[in-house]
């Protein structure tokens, strides 16, 4: 619970003295009046980690995700929702409504978090799960926090970065009567937060950042065995099946061709039987992790329902980037339910996860930056149940949306941080079934991968390779490069990318290198056939 005395102790640590008193007064006065009017919803923002665009059932996948599918069936799905293609940068943009380097990257030294803007407007604020930024959530407006500060963790034993309300938290062998498993624990503490916050009159904001299904691929034995044999057909066949489901469901149009398997991924039928068995087995673990993620999202939704809070709670579910191509497996001889195991999958299964798009986590092609977004809000959505929206949107839009939902103000300064102007645009018109004014430009950058979207046109470069140009209305799978046909558009869009990179993101030096005159060969997949069992 959040009694007033406890709340006074939980406000941001930098906000002390007179500021804390003012903040507390705002919480009581504004929060109570708004809650009594029933005008403002609770906000539950759930982020998955390394989940591919097509991994959920409602986005074409064969993995069992009945809880998320049910939210989609009763709510709204976005078909063109964008992230930043990487874990930490997506978290920065989600929390601040700014592009990653614009906000100061992990330091957030030029950004305000959603929690910091909603708390003064009378919202209770809580976070559970993966942080992956500087300091701790309790330094950035979250009144309570449980989770790990690291970018990845062992699912069974955790690591030394687990914290509860700013203090070290020792990972136990068991939690709430069953063996510790991070995905279960995230939901356990999310439910604990909900149970506490619904006791108060004021609405709440809960940010729930699951680590699943980020590597290492680890899951309880029973969950893994459920998927035995489900991926024996291999990535080529399963990708065709996912794409067909996407078309049949209306998620995607027929006119976008399925992007071809790249040269760095072998045909499934060219693998030996031994390697096919290994590949199928590690996808079984990944599927188990997604299944358990879905089950725990279901637990959170069920608790909102049990607390009579679901009707006026907006639940938003997305992923931080596309499926991950990094082959970092260790100890193939250990089972994935052994805490000492460390499996990953690689570009081949990531290519399946991002069906029908090209490339992966880190890349700014559609496979890297396209995320599912499910919105569920019985009291607020004006769209028909199960509606698909094809309006483009981005993680930076969450801040503006939360400000509108909470009737909150965007700050110019917090403590010593001078806050950059907001980049995002509210999603509320889309929730109302209307067309919103789109972004003039959507900017993308990570490492040496770049992109810019303006209307239906997208300019993109991988690893400083030549600029490619696509018309996404006709070809969102990026199979027909039009750069040579529209050199002036390429020049103008490239100039705009560099303008944003310099003026807004404040990139310097090597980050502003020009692209090359030809594409850079992409080699993502390592041959694991000869890997020793050690």
Q: What is the mean pLDDT?
A: 92
- Tell me how many strands there are: 19
Instruction: Please report which band the strand proportion falls in: under 5%, 5-15%, 15-25%, 25-35%, 35-45% or over 45%.
Output: 15-25%
Low-pLDDT segments: 1-37, 529-534
- Alpha carbon gap, first and last residue: 49 Å
Q: Please give the share of residues in helix.
A: 25-40%
**Helix run count:** 14
Shape: globular
How many strands, what sense, and barrel or not for the largest sheet?
11 strands, mixed
Radius of gyration: 22 Å
Label the structural class: alpha/beta
Folded structure, characterized:
The chain is α/β, with parallel strands linked by helices and 534 residues long. The chain contains 14 helices and 19 strands. The strands form four sheets. Strands 1, 2, 3, 4, 5, 6, 9, 10, 11, 12 and 13 form an eleven-stranded mixed beta sheet that branches. It has a four-stranded antiparallel beta sheet with strand order 16-17-18-19, covered by helices on one side. A two-stranded antiparallel sheet has the order 7-8. Helix 6 packs parallel to helix 9. The N terminus and C terminus are likely disordered.
Overview in brief:
With 534 residues, this protein is α/β, with parallel strands linked by helices. Mean pLDDT is 92; it is low at 1-37 and 529-534. The protein is built from 14 helices and 19 strands.
């Amino acid at each position: 619970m959040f009694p007033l005395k406890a709340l006074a102790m939980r406000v941001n640590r930098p906000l002390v003295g007179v500021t804390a008193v003012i903040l507390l007064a705002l919480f009581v006065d504004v929060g109570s009046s708004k809650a009594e009017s029933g005008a403002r919803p609770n906000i539950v923002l759930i982020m998955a980690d390394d989940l591919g665009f097509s991994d959920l059932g409602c986005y074409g996948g064969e993995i069992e995700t009945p809880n998320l599918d049910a939210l989609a069936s009763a709510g709204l799905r976005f078909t063109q929702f964008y992230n930043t293609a990487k874990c930490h940068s997506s978290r920065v943009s989600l929390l601040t409504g700014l592009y990653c380097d614009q906000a100061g990257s992990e330091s957030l030294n030029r950004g305000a978090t959603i929690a910091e803007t909603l708390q003064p407007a009378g919202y209770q604020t809580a976070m559970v799960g993966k942080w992956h930024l500087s300091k701790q959530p309790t330094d950035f407006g979250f009144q309570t926090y449980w989770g790990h500060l690291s970018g990845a963790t062992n699912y069974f034993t955790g690591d030394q970065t687990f914290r509860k309300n700013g203090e070290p938290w020792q990972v136990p062998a068991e939690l709430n009567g069953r063996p510790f498993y991070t995905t279960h624990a995230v939901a356990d503490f999310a439910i604990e937060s909900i149970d506490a916050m619904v006791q108060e009159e004021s609405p709440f904001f809960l940010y729930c950042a699951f680590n699943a299904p980020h590597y290492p691929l680890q899951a309880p034995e029973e969950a893994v065995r459920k998927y035995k044999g489900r991926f024996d057909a291999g990535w080529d066949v399963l990708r065709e099946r996912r794409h067909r489901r996407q078309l049949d469901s209306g998620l995607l149009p027929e006119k976008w061709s399925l992007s071809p398997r790249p040269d760095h991924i072998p045909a499934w039928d060219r693998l030996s039987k031994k390697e096919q068995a290994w590949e199928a087995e590690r996808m079984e673990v990944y599927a188990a992790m997604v299944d358990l993620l879905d089950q725990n999202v279901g637990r959170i939704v069920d608790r909102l329902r049990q607390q009579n809070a679901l009707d006026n709670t907006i639940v938003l579910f997305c992923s931080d980037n596309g499926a991950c191509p990094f082959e970092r497996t260790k100890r193939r001889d250990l089972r994935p339910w052994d805490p000492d195991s460390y499996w990953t999958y690689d570009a081949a299964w990531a290519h399946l996860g991002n069906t029908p798009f090209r490339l992966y986590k880190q890349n700014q092609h559609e496979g890297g930056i396209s995320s599912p977004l499910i919105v569920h809000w019985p009291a607020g959505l004006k769209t028909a149940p199960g509606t698909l929206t094809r309006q483009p949107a981005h993680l930076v839009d969450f801040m503006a949306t939360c400000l509108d939902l909470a009737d909150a103000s965007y700050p110019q300064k917090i403590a010593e941080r001078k806050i950059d102007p907001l980049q995002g645009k509210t999603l509320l018109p889309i929730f109302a079934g209307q067309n919103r004014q789109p972004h003039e430009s959507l900017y993308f950058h990570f490492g040496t991968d770049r992109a810019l979207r303006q209307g239906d046109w997208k300019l993109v470069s991988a690893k400083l390779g030549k600029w490619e140009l696509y018309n996404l209305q006709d070809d969102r799978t990026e199979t027909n490069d039009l750069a040579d046909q529209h050199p002036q558009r390429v020049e103008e869009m490239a100039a705009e990318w560099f303008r944003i990179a310099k003026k807004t993101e404040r990139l310097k030096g090597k980050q502003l290198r020009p692209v090359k005159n030809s594409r850079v060969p992409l080699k993502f997949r390592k041959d694991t056939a000869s890997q020793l069992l050690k």
